[in-house]
Task: inverse folding
């Protein structure tokens, strides 16, 4: 049996892959904040009076472009943060490297695609739904494996 210290080491290819995709997804989520700001400046849609660029502008909360980016960012928070937690616990189950690395890759790529088709270049459904469900299915699989490992 491999010790937790060994499993949570960059010498472990599963943990190394997990760490890589966590880093990518953190950068992606940080970029969503920047994208929201860019949309706000582009549309002159600001939620706080002190942010208004001109006295002629009014506080506004309902610009569809800003709200689309905000919804995509919220969706990231609802889905990527659970992946961070369950992915780490999944690493501790000492899974097969091929499967684990591809699950992490699937979540990372699916979440990037989800943002691209939802908030950057809007593509009709089912593109967003497919990206969403690929990441959810991979994360749910990992969660079930963690539960099974912890219960037995």
Result:
């Amino acid at each position: 049996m491999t010790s937790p210290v060994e499993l949570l080491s960059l010498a472990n290819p599963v943990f190394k892959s997990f760490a890589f995709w966590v880093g990518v997804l953190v950068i992606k989520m940080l970029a969503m904040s920047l994208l929201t700001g860019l949309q706000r400046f582009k549309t002159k849609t600001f939620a706080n009076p002190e942010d208004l660029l001109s006295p002629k502008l009014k506080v506004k909360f309902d610009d569809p472009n800003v709200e689309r980016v905000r919804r995509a960012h919220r969706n990231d928070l609802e889905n990527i943060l659970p992946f961070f937690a369950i992915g780490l616990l999944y690493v501790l189950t000492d899974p097969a490297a091929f499967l684990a690395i591809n699950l992490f890759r699937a979540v990372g790529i699916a979440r990037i695609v989800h943002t691209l088709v939802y908030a950057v270049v809007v593509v009709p459904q089912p593109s967003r739904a497919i990206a969403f469900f690929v990441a959810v299915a991979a994360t749910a699989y990992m969660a079930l494996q963690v539960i099974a490992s912890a219960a037995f």
Observations:
- Helices lie at 4-7, 13-43, 64-91, 97-120, 127-151.
